[in-house]
Amino acid sequence: MGSGGTIGTGGVVRSVLLNLTSRITNRASRAAAQIVTLTRTSAFWRSTYLIVLLLIWFWLASKFWMLLYFWKHSGEAGTLIVILGVTGELVADLWYEERKKTHRAISGLSTLILILGLVIELYSNGRVSALSDEITAGLESQLSHTLTALGPAMERASEANATAEAAKASVKGYDKQIAEAKERAAIAERRAGDANALASTNERESASLKRQAAILIKQAEDERMARVQLEKEVAWRHISPKEAEAIRSAIPAHLTGFKIEVRHLLSDPEAARYASEIADALRPILDVDGSFGELEPWGKIPQGVGLYVRSMDIPGAVEIQRALKAGGVDAPGALLSQAAHLESKSGILIFVWPKPAPAEQK
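The structure corresponding to this sequence follows.
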């Protein structure tokens, strides 16, 4: 009766433990299913789900290991009880064989103890074997679920690796493009250097050409000035209308009708024309006799224009000299007596000599 009660109590305890374990497993599975439903939208949450699943598995495994540990030690306790029963029987046989009543009591008690130990040991070994099978099955199931859950992750990892390889290939392509761009940049820099050198050469050549052009311009200007000077030297003397008007304006009014004479060398046509222009400039106001030529006098022939008078105090000579100066005609004064073979009826003679040499012109 006592043995049956013990077995019944063990069955109740085992039933309670199995029921508790089943409830824990069912709740954990439902929680895992809910977590799977909530975490299908993101790789991060899938990873979190795997971690939580592993934690639940470890917790369940720890529970199973606790039961396994309990029944394993229960089996060890049964073995100790068996040893205790065997020891009791040995003691009864060795020391209490003559005492029948005591021998019978000790032997019967040792037998019960031995049977109890054997029952506990056998049942514990059975439970250990059953729990081991359950743990193995649970591990295989959890491993299967884990591998199933890891399948998409492995696929995504494979896709990520493929993407990484493609990115590496793209990077290599970019590196090649960058190298080509650097090479083109180096070529452009060399060309720019050549262009700069060519530009520097062109600048030097341009500067040389500018200097040559400046020299040529200066030479042309010098030639032009020399030509102008030559033209001026060979050009005949001339009194412009403006100069003629200046001469007339400079003659005082009281000299109106005053008689003078204008002469030139007969052999000098330039002097003849210049003498005629001087006479024309003076004639509207003065009474000019001329202009006709004179033969060359003896001795050195003067140059330019001379104003010759009979005496230094003759009236009108200074005013006429000033009027000629106003028109650009420089006529130095001199006495007729100092001139070679020159005569004047009016007492004032303007004589046009040959054109002065360039160094002597004023």
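Residues 1-7 have pLDDT under 50 and may be disordered.
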